[in-house]
């Protein structure tokens, strides 16, 4: 029945098809790998070449690059060469199992030549986690309050100063007015004298002139009385101004007490202000990695697949369901970067699969780094329990740190000299709940504080420098809890308390000094003005009175002369001349 | 001309199958095997094995391929039936135990026998194999010579069958 003549050519054809498959399969596998990678990362995945070595059941990948979805011009990770040893027995059972693999030349965070964004129209993804508050904002708020306290221009708000200025303007004006009036009075008296002494030859004219002089004399006497009254009023005003000055002093004392209050710096706030910006990004980065790993290592087991969309798979009892793709062990070596310094690392990755929930062991990444950041990293991504559990443990006992500045140079900053830092971190993400600790210790350490130039004039710099000189080590512990989307954190450090004490002491002293200066200045301005007012008042009063006395003398003399000439001496004094009743005949005879 | 022949190769095969001298038994076996292949979803070891069997045995290839293509085209219509049939088979405790032990062995997972449509299609195909053969054989015995003679009257059929084309156009 076997049709050999038919079968042999077709077997040959099958062989040719297998050969074509062998040639086409790498391309197909490469395409599948890129598509699967891009689906997981959400950014471009590139594989320069893929080779299949059937005899050794080996898959070789050259230059694999995974773009960073949050930073498209950088690679999340790239590897020069990847060799995967496939398990042929598993292949016969329809499972792609890599029992041993080696990834060499791994590079993390390297720049790309082209954008790794899949759809340029879509914006780059960022970390969605929102932190309760920004450390820099918190620190800055407190510092701004302190700076505001020290820089407030209170002089213009002081009533004493304002009153002093007002007195300095008002009193000279009043003196001048009085002077002018007294001078005017004097001129009027002189004119009267001249008028009376002229003695017009025509009796009728003389009578008119004397009548006019008598009227003028009356006006002069009234003006003289007014001037005396005004002088009295000024004296009373001076007394009122002294009372106002006393009230202004009281008001200013109250104002200075209110406005120049020192805000005592909370040591924890200062720690957050100084160390928060340094530690927070590291924790944020670690959380971003955990979040990324969550997507990469899904918690749910995949649903039973159908065959080309037809029918459904029936789970057979007693048959252990295992993932279709497994990587049992991968040996890694490569190089990362920390503070622009290369950090070589090597390690293993075990338990990777397409369905981690079906595995009986977690995905474990163990790395050991050398160079400037010698240390250990262990990441465990466990999907075997009811809730996904991810852990990261990092221990770098001798991390080389360059000189760095903590805080904001335009406010308050601390320069920490270069040295080695002991960093350890433990982060755990169970379900959506995150908790962890990041510890940081640098010893010995040399720190130099810098205060904003506007504030540095006082004792602040001096006090802070003295406190900083006492600091032998900087240690910090950042504890984290909350959820992945909204983590909460607390920071404890020795740096904050040590500097905060010095800062508070210096700030209190500075503020007290400033309050005293302002009070003294207000008193001084007011006292000067009041003294000046008193002296000027006395001087001007004296001058005015002298002029008034002269005028009064002249007025009296003129009154007498006029009385003599008009023959009614008593009536002329203080009254308008009664011309209608004057003995005009007698007057005309003269 | 070569390109034209290559393009119409399936038609040629079908015409040749119907016009060449082959037994009704071969035609009936081709039809039955094509029916089984058509009922089983492609892309698994069972479909591949059945196709290899079709090519490797002295059954009529043209009839087998035509039947497989025709039945495959009707697959979406019969899928619910196959799924229900497969579900009944695969949920039977005896079958499950047996299949579970098979699935531990190499190559068996490539058969997709745990899929309801594959299991149902294969089972139904095997059930229908003999009836299809038995019922189609007399029909082929009776109608194949007549059909071949009728087809050979046309130049296209003779051309497709690989025969020479007389100058006067129509053969007897």
User: Structural class of the helix and strand makeup of chain B?
Assistant: mainly alpha
Spans of chain B with pLDDT under 50 lasting ≥5 residues?
164-172
User: How many distinct helices of chain B?
Assistant: 9
Largest beta sheet: strand ordering of chain A: 1-2-3-4-5-6-7-8-9-12-13-15-16
Low-confidence runs of at least 5 consecutive residues of chain A: 569-590
Distance between the termini of chain B: 26 Å
Protein traits:
heterodimer; A: 590 residues; alpha+beta; 13-stranded mixed sheet; three-stranded antiparallel sheet; 10 helices; rod-shaped; disordered C terminus; B: 172 residues; mainly alpha; 9 helices; 74% helix; 0% strand
Notes on the protein architecture:
The complex is a heterodimer of chains A (590) and B (172). The radius of gyration of chain A is 50 Å and the shape is rod-shaped. The relative contact order of chain A is 0.12. Chain A is built from ten helices and 16 strands. Chain A is an alpha+beta fold. Helices cover 47% and strands 26% of the residues of chain A. Chain B is an all-alpha fold. Chain A binds chain B through residues 1-3, 6-7, 10, 89, 92-95, 306-308, 310-319, and chain B through 41-44, 55-58, 75, 79, 82-83, 86-87, 90-91, 96-97, 99-100, 103-110, 112, 114-118, 120.
Secondary structure elements and pairings:
The complex is a heterodimer of chains A (590) and B (172).
Chain A: H1 4-41, E1 45-53, E2 58-68, E3 71-86, H2 88-92, E4 96-108, H3 135-151, H4 159-198, H5 203-259, H6 267-296, E5 325-338, E6 341-353, E7 363-369, E8 375-382, E9 389-401, E10 404-407, E11 412-416, E12 419-430, E13 433-442, E14 447-451, H7 460-470, E15 474-482, E16 487-493, H8 495-566, H9 569-572, H10 584-589
Parallel strand pairs in A: 4-5
Antiparallel strand pairs in A: 1-2, 2-3, 3-4, 5-6, 6-7, 7-8, 8-9, 9-12, 10-11, 11-14, 12-13, 13-15, 15-16
Helix pairs in contact in A: 3-6, 4-5, 4-8, 5-8, 6-8, 7-8
Chain B: H1 2-7, H2 9-19, H3 24-39, H4 45-56, H5 61-73, H6 75-90, H7 93-103, H8 116-151, H9 155-161
Helix pairs in contact in B: 2-5, 2-9, 3-4, 3-5, 3-8, 6-8
